[in-house]
Design goal:
two-stranded parallel ribbon; 21% strand; alpha/beta; 12 strands; 10-stranded mixed β-sheet; elongated; 280 residues; D-Maltodextrin-Binding Protein, domain 2
Length: 280
């Protein structure tokens, strides 16, 4: 009887040791995660502002010892800052160029965005074909009456050289370097405000930035919506890239934690919450 009691006591003692070790291990893991502190710096696309602000706020709430800073300098400038080593992540609202990849930048697609074609709210033209849109931006068509609208001059608004939105828009329409812009503006918000306040204006912005101050017009009879982009029916869509120098696994613990959060359930909810599409 005494022998059996000793065996049981030893077994219980061993179980307690194992459980304690397990709990200590869990506590250690949580402690290591909690120990992460410092700063993550991003720079680049203005079109990604809504995503970056929402993601940064959510991430910092979950990781109060980490500070995330984002500068909105344009896609090309953001990737250049990454390559030069002045930021941890370069944001680009387009795919990376061959030269950027050759410099060591790695393309990490975090979301898919549509490019909405917008006009002022009083414009009577609600739909254009790809050919008509090309004709507008190359200057071949200069009055809305040529497209069945009012007798009103078309004011062609676009983004500045180096903008990811401009690069994607021109590339998708195959009109690189041949656009006849009336004005080239340096941010998504500037294009939105200019088109909203200018009779006859047309412009392009990130789909998630569209609001009721303007109207989005259909392209080839297809509205710029998430559903149509997912279905492959809307022509103007592009990736949102958070580029790193080397693979994510080669980055600092802080940067890896940032991407882990982006791919987590909470991070994915942030992406869809700002109107973007999750990449496959």
């Amino acid at each position: 009887m005494k022998k059996n009691w000793m065996i049981k006591t030893a077994a219980v003692g061993m179980l307690a040791v194992l459980m304690a070790g397990s709990l200590t291990g869990c506590g250690s893991t949580e402690a290591n995660a909690a120990k992460l502190s410092g700063k993550i710096s991003l720079a680049g696309s203005t079109s990604m502002e809504k995503l970056c602000e929402a993601m940064s706020e959510s991430f910092m709430e979950a990781n109060p010892e980490i500070t995330v800073t984002v500068e909105y300098t344009g896609s090309s400038a953001g990737v250049e800052s990454l390559v030069q080593g002045s930021v941890d992540v370069g944001n680009a609202s387009r795919g990376l160029k061959d030269g950027e990849k050759e410099s060591g930048a790695v393309e990490n697609i975090v979301a898919i965005d549509g490019i909405a074609v917008i006009t002022d709210k009083n414009n009577t033209v609600k739909d254009v074909t790809t050919e008509q849109l090309v004709s507008i931006y190359t200057g071949e068509v200069s009055n809305w009456s040529e497209l069945g609208g009012n007798d009103e001059a078309i004011v062609v608004i676009g983004r500045e050289a180096g903008s990811g939105t401009r690069g994607a828009f021109e590339e998708l329409l195959e009109i690189e370097d041949i656009c006849a812009y009336a004005q080239e503006l340096d941010s998504t918000g500037a294009v939105l405000a200019k088109v909203a306040s200018t009779p006859g204006a047309i412009g392009y912005i990130s789909l998630d930035a569209a609001d009721d101050s303007i109207q989005s017009i259909a392209l080839n009879g297809v509205a710029a919506t998430e559903e149509n982009i997912v279905a492959g029916q809307y022509q103007l869509s592009r990736p949102f890239v958070m580029a790193t120098m080397g693979e994510i696994a080669e980055q600092s613990e802080l940067v890896q934690a940032w991407f882990d959060y982006i791919h987590s359930e909470d991070g994915q909810a942030v992406i869809t919450g700002v109107g973007l599409i999750l990449p496959e």
